[in-house]
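Q: What structure does this chain adopt?
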Amino acid sequence: MSIIELKNIEKRFGGVSALEDINITVNKNEWVSIMGPSGSGKTTLLNILSLMDNPTGGEYLFNGEDVSGFDEAKQLLFRREKIGLIFQQFHLIPYLTALENVMLAQYYHSATDEEDARAVLDKVGLSHRLTHRPSQLSGGEQQRLCIARSLINDPEVLLADEPTGNLDADNEKIIFELFAELKKEGKTLITITHNRELGALGDRVVLLHHGHQVSPHHHKHDNRHFQHGKI
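A:
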């Protein structure tokens, strides 16, 4: 059953076309990797999926509802309740502890619950770092903190933008395993990445090239995933 349907999505900035004729369906509990070279439109697509930007044309259906025309208040509610966002840049509050960073995300959604916040930090392997501030955490720990923050409101879709972009190989592996575990638990994941290894972990790769969608290939670990453009 589909959770996201993008139908003929276009995005123009003045006379420049950033995305054209994008058609993607994401099913519940599916992991879709969106890949492509720099300038292919990945970030523009992420902004549309998270309702941080509106398409110029086409439809964005989420659970069958067209969300592309939502006003600002509805967009905010959508991001809080439906989407868990994980960025390459961590966007953590430097003067708050790990626990407080997670509880702040929770606060904006509903009431804070320290027990729930502790539980998601435990899930990402940070139960021993609850009182540490971001500057006291390694890059890998900060990214795991971001994942915990994205999970606190139990979103329907996790949307990750280059989640391993700033990490070394060891921390990369931890994030790979964490995403695989979340998928096993029933989460729907969309990862936007340059990383072939991370891309190949998905059920399916969608390739973008100069704002156009390249014919998808459904076979995991198939080098044809990467034949278009330098990824």
